[in-house]
Amino acid sequence: MAEAQGEVRLMDVPVYNMSGKEVGTMSIDEQALGGSINAALIKQAYVRYHANLRQGSSRTRGRKDIAGSTAKIYKQKGTGRARHGTRKVNLFKGGGHTFAKSRPKADYRKDMPTKMRRKANRNALLAKLIDNEVKIIDDLSLSAPKTKDFVKLMEALGIDRRALVALAHGDKSKNVRLGARNIDDVALCSVEQINCFELLNHRYLIVGKAELEGWLAGPSSQIDKLAKVAPMGRREETD
Predict the structure, then answer these.
(1) Which pLDDT belongs to residue 59?
(2) Which tens digits make up the pLDDT trace of 112-122?
(3) How far is CA 38 from its chain centroid?
């Protein structure tokens, strides 16, 4: 049966505690995340995020750019060795490149409308939810900044690949941040920085229930004209 346009379709996503046990579910509207996977949109946003990481400052140094003496290293004749002048040539270790890159700084940045980026980010989250790769924690916090405690959580959740941990600001997530930062294949970010590039670069997403609810209802939810007319988080103008 065809779905009615604008109909709310809820996904019941498991919610776990810090021991890795399921303690409830969280209902998420599929339509608010795009309804279905839009691979073309996700790819466009991914390429945009990736391109904007490039600095465009790749350079190599020629002979004139190498610091040091220009004196002849030994006399021209009588040594039985090849004729050489300065040590700045490309034949010596530390010398300049033969064809040095000296072009102006390149700009690889790509632009994309804000509403499209937000739709792509939410659609990438939907893809993770469909694949059961989002681990929602009822209260993502640790009593002490111990790495072994966070490792136990990952083992209890069955996480054996790269994971992205989205944290809230403040002292509540400080111990989690300190405990997880030394673990291989674990990346940390603030919940506001969740985007399709980070989601696709990591197999799992670990996020607190309150943090995910705030992200879903925050500025990322403005994918219509309100994003331009009345954006969330705008500072109020004072006389």
Answers:
(1) 87
(2) 999 999 999 99
(3) 20
Q: Are residues 165 and 217 in the same domain?
A: yes
Q: How many residues would you count in the chain? A: 239
Task: Tell me, yes or no, whether 79 and 123 share the same domain.
Answer: no
CA distance 126 to 200: 12
> The pTM is what?
0.80
DSSP 134: E
Residues 188 and 138 in one domain: yes
Tokens of 182: 């030394």
CA nearest to 157, candidates 173, 140, 137: 137
Please write the tens of the pLDDT for every residue from 222-239. Answer: 888 888 788 886 655 554
- Tokens 């499209």 locate to 116
Distance CA 119, CA 199 (A): 14
Helix (H, G, I), strand (E, B) or coil at 114: helix
At residue 79, what is the residue type?
A: T
